[in-house]
Specification:
The protein is α+β, with helices and mostly antiparallel strands. The protein is built from three helices and four strands, in the order αααββββ. Bound molecules: zinc ion (ZN).
Length: about 130
């Protein structure tokens, strides 16, 4: 689960973790766009960072507590499309497919996620499967 800053970022950007999602997960900087936030949340699922997942969740939809399935390993993220969610937007959506492996078999989840700004930073609101 642990990942070095010099490792490839789990979100599949092609950059190293330390200059992609890691500073966002560690709250050194805010995700500039909804897509960057979505990527950082995927990476947080990969490294098992529940605190960051809750932090980046809109207060009105966030679960009180979060427990990740230890047997489920997120492997690859494909961004299909984005709508708004840019530097000057207040909301936006990202449609993606997230590939995982659970108990030996591969699967995927396709979702259209909604994001909005909360106190200036992007947060995840909810998703439609
Ligand atoms: Zn990344």
């Amino acid at each position: 689960m642990s990942r070095l800053s010099s490792d490839r970022c789990p979100c599949g950007s092609g950059m190293v973790f330390g200059s992609c999602c890691e500073p966002i997960i560690r709250r050194v900087k805010n995700a500039p766009t909804a897509q960057a936030l979505m990527r950082s949340r995927f990476s947080a699922f990969c490294v098992g960072d529940c605190d960051y997942l809750l932090y980046s969740w809109a207060p009105e939809t966030a679960p009180v507590d979060l427990e990740l399935d230890e047997d489920l390993r997120w492997e690859r993220l494909e961004i299909l499309s984005t709508d708004e969610g840019g530097l000057f937007d207040q909301s936006g959506t990202v449609t993606f497919v997230a590939h995982y492996r659970a108990r030996g078999s591969a699967g995927f989840q396709r979702e259209c996620s909604s994001f909005r700004r909360h106190e200036g930073r992007w947060v995840y609101v909810d998703g439609e499967l």
